């Protein structure tokens, strides 16, 4: 996969190197020449550029990029501006770093696909989650076991838990099902919020947009994710 990471500080720089080491193509962008100089030999491409300059951002290979990560950690204004520009230029997927609650509300309103909090999610964890395509969130229990959030595959829609029998086929346990509801934020804009339904019964019928919380071995999770729709 191809990533553009804007903001090569401690978090963004480490994430860029980690994703490169995992075999992905990474373009690192920062206004600081010294930061780019430090990382240029460790990632695929590195560019000294102001990501709040729309004309400059247009020169990036956005059509070929799978994910844009806004990892700016200090300048909230620059983070908001660059996020808005990448959104306006129709980037496929935008993940943005939130610095505080108000900042999070603003970038939610812009319409990013995901918001991260580096204080809660390490670069290692994020890189592993991005590596498992289809995983919305993950929690590493051990080297062998993970808990993941994954959108229910289309083949299971309108099937019950008993009919799907994911436990028998993939040795994965469904801990619960999450539904996304729209609630108004501080600006009065509808934003997605998770609603956990609790214990899943065998007769529960999967619906479109359901998110499964699964527990099991990483290999089995990967087999499940590679399942064709």
TrEMBL record:
Pfam families documented for this protein: TrkA_N
Top-level taxon of the source organism: Bacteria
Protein name in UniProt: Trk system potassium uptake protein TrkA
Biological process, per Gene Ontology: potassium ion transport
TM spans (from-to): none
Gene3D superfamilies reported for this sequence: NAD(P)-binding Rossmann-like Domain, Regulator of K+ conductance, C-terminal domain
Residue ranges constituting the RCK N-terminal domain according to the UniProt record: 1-116
Species of provenance: Algoriphagus aquimarinus
């Amino acid at each position: 996969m191809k990533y553009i990471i804007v903001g090569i500080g401690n978090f963004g720089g480490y994430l860029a190197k980690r994703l490169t080491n995992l075999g992905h193509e990474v373009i690192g962008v920062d206004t600081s020449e010294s930061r780019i100089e430090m990382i240029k030999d460790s990632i695929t491409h590195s560019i000294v550029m102001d990501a709040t300059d729309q004309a400059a951002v247009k020169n990036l290979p956005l059509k070929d990029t799978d994910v844009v990560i806004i990892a700016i950690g200090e300048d909230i204004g620059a983070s908001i501006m660059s996020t808005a520009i990448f959104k306006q230029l129709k980037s496929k997927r935008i993940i943005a770093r939130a610095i505080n609650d108000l900042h999070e509300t603003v970038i939610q309103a812009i319409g990013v696909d995901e918001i991260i909090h580096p204080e809660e999610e390490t670069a290692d964890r994020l890189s592993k989650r991005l590596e498992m395509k289809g995983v919305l969130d993950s929690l590493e229990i051990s080297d062998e076991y993970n808990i993941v959030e994954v959108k229910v595959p289309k083949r299971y829609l309108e099937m019950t838990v008993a009919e799907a029998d994911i436990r028998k086929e993939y040795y994965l346990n469904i801990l619960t099902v999450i539904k996304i509801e729209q609630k108004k934020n501080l600006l009065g804009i509808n934003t997605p919020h998770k609603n956990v339904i609790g214990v899943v019964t065998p007769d529960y019928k999967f619906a479109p947009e359901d998110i499964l919380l699964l527990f099991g071995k990483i290999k089995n999770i990967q087999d499940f994710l590679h399942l064709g729709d």
